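Quick one - first record:
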Amino acid sequence: MQILITGGTGGIGFAIASHFAEQQHQVIIADLHQASIDTKVAQLKQLGYHAEGILLDVTNADSIARCAAQYNIDVLVNNAGIQHVARLEDFPPEKWQMLLNVMLTGPAMLSRALLPGMRERNFGRIINIGSIHALIASPFKSAYVAAKHGLLGFSKVVALENADKNFTINTVCPAYVKTPLVEQQIAAQAKEHNLTEQQVIEQIMLAPMPQKAFIGVDEIAATTAFLCSDAARHMTAQTLVLDGGWTAR
């Protein structure tokens, strides 16, 4: 299968790319920075895996169109993400819009571009990397929470529209994963709440989670691969939550 992973050079994205590559699929690592793409593709090729890279801006229609024209994508993993932490009244409007463009409109438009090919081949899998914040909210994250909540509704609609084909779309929603993006959040929340970074981890991030542990990128990668397996062929419009029991409360 040809598998496109947006934000493919980051912690979660590259873990997913590596997992699929190990299963002998052709992975296409998509990101905004050519040097990072080249480095990650080279790492996979050195291991004998099939990997390519593409510069892709999910907020740019021309960039999306070029990607769709270049590949026959079987599996799309919408993983690209950014974060900004601030009270709503202090949230720059252009930053608020950018978060929605990257994490909601971008996945929708990229899915839109790739869906005709998936329908023509009668096979497609779209996996959105959501977040615990697709289900719950935290202060100072209005744009991020809005975007991730929106992914769930988007997925349900696309699932219904394509139920006549061998196609599924699902959203994987992990609690906090120790990635560079989360490291930045720790620093930002420490400043916002006037806490130390360790206090942010213990009192804010892991406090609601009964298992008191960050989610591993390997867990997310394996869950994503499962959604592409024959065993999950009738799982669609679903939200798979990896949260250590957080939402059971």
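second record:
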Amino acid sequence: MPTFAGIDHLSLSVTDLDRSQRFYTDVLDFIPVLDFGSARSLFHRRTRFFLALVRHEGGNGTPFTELATGLDHVGLVAADLDELIAWEQRFEALGVVYTPIREMEFGHHLNFRDPDNIPLEFTISNETMLGWMDELAEREFTPEEIQARVAEYLASREGGVPA
């Protein structure tokens, strides 16, 4: 089967290019690279990630909702819990809509919204999840093996056994 080398960019439909560009540059430290009039390309130096913002003629101008078919959210990686806490403090200082850091089954999450209500998330995976990702990259697993391991892990958490 053919493969691919990674993700090249993400393109988001927005209602106001200037407002969205300010958010992604001021809050997340992207830099503007190209302006095509109805689309702008932003670049994040540290991660080398390109983000395109597009204002479509004839767009309905309504805020994004993850309840429509398509994008649910964009997941970004934080280095560690200290960085996640720093992001939460930054969002508070800048008035960014966010949900406080939550510890979930497979790590910590900090969810927030851009000006068009597009949900974004910073996450850090716990040691169990990081180990599983390493294993998944190295060998094939059957769906049954994966389901059994997840069920065993979740049961160990409910029973108070350290994960």
